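Hi support team,

I'm filing this because I wasn't sure whether my run with adenosine monophosphate finished correctly. The job status page said complete, but I'd like someone to confirm that the output block is well-formed before I use it downstream. Pasting the exact inputs I used:
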Amino acid sequence: MSVTVVRTAAAMRALALGWRQAGQTVGVVPTMGALHAGHASLVRAARADCARVVVTIFVNPAQFDRAEDLARYPRTEAADLALLAPLGVDAVLAPPAAEVYPEGFATQVRVGGPADRLEGQHRPGHFDGVATVVTKLFGMTAAGRAYFGEKDWQQLQVVRRLAADLDLGVEVVACPTVREADGLALSSRNARLSPAARQVAAALPRVMSAVAAAIRAGMAVPGALAVGRQDLAAAGFEKVDYLELCDERTLEPLEAPRGGARLLAAAWAGGVRLIDNIAVAAAEPGARGRPAPSRSPGSISGMMKGRGAFPR
Ligand code: AMP
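And here is everything the job wrote out:
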């Protein structure tokens, strides 16, 4: 099955407004291409819910804080279209940058709240760039629903806030993170990992699961996070941008676990920046106040061996 590719905002809007006028809900799946099974899971969710499904493929210059990252971002349109063909999408919107940001473009959406910390601090302007393009893509596609991955947890909260605050009339749907067999979250950037860095990368979900299990078991949060950072360094990560327990909606830091707590991390392996996140429920009944489990030599993973599956 071939896929209809749309290159202009006007053509997309005409197509989508026709669907809307016929009473059909449009589900949009915004992506930057280099598609993998994680993206495919979003498309399947949209396909199950919506009469019409549009996948957007646009490497958005406005959300890259480092020129080198933008230049190196994989662009694989032919393979992307081949991946989408059997999924039955109604259109792929893949506009050139000049179509999205024509000469004279002068408007930016500025997001706060959940955008302020973590990625917002480490990648200045990133979420404003995301919010601006997402607002435009929602408009171009006349979207009624939009599908985002939990892989980018903070982005998901920022987009939810954006849709609510600006009354965009779009229901934001969250889809679970798709992982490799060893737990590494699928990401377009994984293609840039050398074999050695790929080995290191697998430690991110492993250490995060162990930290989450330790916190659930009653270990004090600052101590668990400190050991987790040490473990990531020991596993070969050259830098840990953050490893934090946060409120899952506001992304405010938490000193103790409670309902809606989430562990989020960003770390560098072989020059590639990886992010991940995992739910951390409150301590098991009776666990809080219990003495923290003693550390086995060297690592929280050793300490919590066998306790946790990979992050969800
Ligand atoms: P990207 O192309 O990386 O901007 O991602 C496009 C969408 O796919 C975002 O909503 C991501 O959160 C989602 N996504 C990326 N990787 C995964 C994954 N491993 N599992 C689920 N969703 C993902």
